[in-house]
Amino acid sequence: MKAVLATDLSAASEATIENETCLGCLGRIGIEEMHLVTVIPSNVHAGMPGIDFEKRRRNAIRSYERVIEDAGFDVDVHVVRGTPHRRIRGIAETIGASLTLVGSRGKSPLENRVIGSTARNLARTTETPLLVNRIERAADDPDVVRQHLFQRMLYATDFSDNAERAFEAFSYLRHATQEATLVHVETPKDPGPSDDTDPETQLGERAEQLEGWGIETRTEIRRGDPTDEILAAETTYDPTTILVGSRGHSRLRRLLLGSVSEDLVARANGNVMLVPPERTR
């Protein structure tokens, strides 16, 4: 499996890349080849006085390359120019990546507009599973918030096709997962369950599958606003990563974003993994 690891060479990006535990988690789920990507913004020009961003970035990324090679991965480096989320997404699709990993501090409204904008734009548009690795916000020398990426998973489902596609990610995440919490949030607009769509039954079936893989699993049905209730479950169970399907078949729906997955990227305390709809051929 291949992964794209996007970096802006900031202290936050360094926290993701130099965390041996995080790299170990990626190895356990089957990642063998890592593509380091850094994007020089289109409005930065090589001829700007005293600045050679491309050369500086190539020099800086070499140390990250060595860290990842020492962890046992094959590494390819991409220093490209353009709009960050578009170039990251394009490289992921070109190489056939199974995962895109990007660090984000989140929480602050200003940082969500600037630092976090790449993560949010990827959440809207990615066609590759996206892992947003949460980094400490109020620190000059930040660290990752959760050392183990997949050890404790919180899977949120509305039983849609997109949610089922996200659940399928456990086929490889299970090699690094010890505990899972499966959550369904009922809203006032939900129709009453029929015999074959009872949420407790459906969650139970999924829990049985995970327990068969040796994952300690609990289920919970909550009621209210989906984003608020998923975040409340995060507070209760302290997962290392929230796993959820993302939606976005149309431009309008990407902007509104069904808005749960984008809200989770912005507001969750820990990591968030989004699994997009299957690509339309």
From TrEMBL:
Domain of life of the organism encoding this protein: Archaea
Name of the molecule in the record: Universal stress protein
Residues annotated as domain UspA: 33-132, 150-276
Pfam family of the protein (one): Usp
Cross-referenced InterPro entries: Rossmann-like_a/b/a_fold, Universal_stress_UspA, UspA
Family: Belongs to the universal stress protein A family.
